[in-house]
Design brief:
Elements (H helix, E strand, L loop, with lengths): L1 H25 L6 E4 L3 E3 L4 E8 L5 E7 L2 E7 L1 E6 L8 E21 L6 E20 L38 H26 L1
Parallel strand pairs: 2-8
Antiparallel strand pairs: 1-3, 3-6, 4-5, 4-7, 7-8
Length: about 200
């Protein structure tokens, strides 16, 4: 009878151990990754930055930082809008997202007094970090809003610096001289035919 009780106790201990191990495995996240969106905006406008965690079952305590501005949140994702400064040239800044989560697979402890069987999972705080590059552009390529990207004062590129092509209209026509000569010849031929017909009628 004592041997039977001992066998039952051993079987119970083994069962609890298996269940505890299964629970620990169910809460284990061995490959947690954080993805941060990457966007390009004109400096001075707001930018939406999003971070997500994979697998999506991980419950994060988020810290999202961009250009010294820190935001917090919780869940499997975070989405925040940040303001950006005006820039005179293209700039790139990293947005950093940190996911802090509890991983119960790292510590497994037994408990209980004499004649009792017990197990408990001790949660361990773990972090995963992701980075996304945000690109800021000047308003018109050189940041001054005048359309002169190379800064030489010549907005239209004709070399005179006045931006109006020297007051000349663009040459969008064809061979003007050839058409002028053809038109003149047609007038002369038409006039000759008209004069000849009047002489015959006379």
């Amino acid at each position: 009878m004592k041997k039977l009780r001992l066998a039952v106790a051993v079987a119970l201990v083994a069962s609890f151990s298996v269940l505890a191990s299964s629970s620990a495995h169910a809460q284990s996240y061995p490959n947690v990754t954080v993805n941060v969106s990457e966007r390009t905006v004109v400096g001075g406008n707001s930018i939406l930055i999003e971070a997500t965690v994979s697998p999506s079952t991980v419950d994060c305590q988020w810290t999202l930082t961009f250009m010294g501005d820190e935001r917090t949140g919780s869940g499997n994702s975070i989405s925040e809008t940040f303001s950006t400064p005006e820039v005179s040239s293209e700039q790139q800044h990293d947005a950093v997202a940190v996911c802090t989560y509890d991983d119960g697979s790292n510590q497994l402890s037994g408990g209980g007094g004499s004649g009792t069987v017990g197990t408990s999972l001790a949660t361990v705080e773990t972090t995963a970090t992701g980075t996304g590059t945000q690109t800021l552009l000047p308003e018109d390529g050189d940041g001054d809003g005048d359309g002169d990207e190379d800064g030489d004062g010549d907005e239209d590129g004709d070399g005179d610096g006045d931006g109006d092509n020297g007051g000349l209209l663009p040459n969008t026509g064809g061979e003007r001289l050839a058409w002028l000569i053809i038109g003149l010849l047609l007038v002369l031929v038409g006039g000759g035919v008209y004069m000849a017909s009047r002489q015959r009628e006379a």
